[in-house]
């Protein structure tokens, strides 16, 4: 665990909307303990939609496509389609998400980081999400500062403004098609698992794991986070080479999201894929474990 801490937390107000929404989703997920609302089809949907909304929507689209532009999709409407899948993870609209994440990269583990475990593990994991509102954040000026490319795009601005309708529509469709078991497992449980998987990248991957590259932050490569985030847990590699579409750099650093992008390239819908060439000696372990 890091020994240094940032004593001064930024001044944030409680953001009631995310607290109620995310809290409600967690309460909804607890309904999974009610045996009558279990079904094997609901469990299968939980896994499939976890990949569709978390893997394709957040890891591939919000992160590697929109934030870092490490590849492009053709035709253009595919970018909007996959962005809408991302909104179904209940992690907010694309412009706010991208702005927060670019700010994280610009100030990693420093005073102005959006979320760093140096302000407390659970702050980085989820609490900041609920206390993010201050005078500057999530305003037009904030979006223009950190995500001007997306802010200029009227479709992304529309998705940002109405992002909440998409997860609600997905929940309604699940209930209409499969009743309570599909809503609870494919809706609430799946969303909570995606949320915590994403948050583990912010928290655990800046605390535990090994470092392959000397970066000015405390990012780590952590295999079990990579497993639940389709490759995003190779986070030290990512901080070292932020625009690379591929985060898993050793042969055993399995990166499902990069495999997906590569398959899309074969299908001729993904192009301009950015990769890095690293001399093999740079892939030697720089340090192992949480020690700095
Ligand atoms: Zn990070
Ligand atoms: Zn990133």
Written account of the structure:
The chain is mainly α and 292 residues long. The chain has one domain. Helices cover 54% and strands 1% of the residues. The chain contains 12 helices and 2 strands; from the N terminus they run H-H-E-H-H-H-H-H-H-H-H-H-H-E. A two-stranded antiparallel ribbon has the order 1-2. Helix 4 (94-106) crosses helix 6. The radius of gyration is 19 Å and the shape is globular. It starts with 15 loop residues before the first helix and ends in a 21-residue tail after the last strand. Bound molecules: zinc ion (2 copies).
Following the backbone from N to C, one meets helices and strands in this order, namely: HHEHHHHHHHHHHE
- Which structural class do the helices and strands define? mainly alpha
- Rg over alpha carbons: 19 Å
Main sheet: strands, sense, barrel? 2 strands, antiparallel
**Tally of individual domains:** 1
How would you describe the oligomerization state of the chains in this entry?
single chain
Terminal CA distance = 9 Å
Instruction: Tell me what portion of residues adopts beta-strand conformation.
Output: under 5%
- Spatially, the strands of the biggest sheet line up as 1-2
In DSSP terms (H or I, runs of 4 or more residues), the helix count works out at 12
Please render the helix and strand layout as text:
Elements (H helix, E strand, L loop, with lengths): L15 H15 L9 H28 L4 E2 L3 H11 L6 H13 L14 H10 L9 H7 L1 H4 L2 H8 L3 H38 L20 H6 L6 H6 L15 H11 L3 E2 L21
Antiparallel strand pairs: 1-2
The site of one zinc ion (ZN) has 7 residues, from helix 2 and helix 4.
């Amino acid at each position: 665990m890091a020994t240094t801490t940032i004593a001064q937390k930024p001044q944030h107000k409680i953001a009631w909307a995310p607290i109620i929404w995310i809290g409600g989703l967690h309460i909804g997920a607890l309904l999974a303990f009610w045996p009558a609302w279990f079904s094997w089809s609901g469990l299968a949907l939980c896994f499939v939609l976890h990949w569709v909304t978390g893997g394709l929507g957040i890891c591939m689209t919000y992160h590697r496509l929109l934030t870092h532009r490490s590849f492009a999709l053709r035709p253009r409407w595919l970018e909007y389609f996959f962005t809408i899948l991302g909104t179904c993870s209940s992690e907010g609209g694309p412009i706010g998400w991208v702005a927060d994440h670019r700010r994280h990269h610009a100030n990693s583990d420093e005073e102005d980081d959006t979320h760093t475990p140096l302000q407390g593990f659970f702050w980085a994991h989820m609490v900041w999400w609920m206390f993010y509102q201050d005078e500057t954040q999530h305003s037009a000026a904030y979006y223009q500062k950190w995500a001007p490319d997306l802010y200029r795009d009227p479709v992304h601005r529309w998705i940002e403004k109405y992002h909440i309708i998409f997860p609600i529509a997905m929940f309604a469709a699940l209930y209409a098609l499969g009743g309570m078991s599909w809503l609870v497992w494919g809706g609430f449980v799946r969303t909570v698992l995606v949320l915590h998987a994403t948050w583990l990248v912010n928290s655990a991957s800046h605390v535990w794991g090994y470092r392959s590259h000397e970066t000015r932050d405390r990012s780590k490569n952590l295999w079990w986070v990579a497993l639940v985030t389709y490759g995003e847990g190779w986070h030290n590699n990512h901080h070292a080479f932020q625009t690379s579409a591929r985060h898993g750099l050793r042969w055993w650093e399995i990166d499902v999201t990069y495999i997906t992008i590569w398959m899309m390239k074969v299908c001729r819908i993904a192009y301009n894929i950015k990769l890095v060439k690293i001399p093999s000696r740079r892939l030697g372990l720089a340090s192992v474990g949480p020690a700095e």
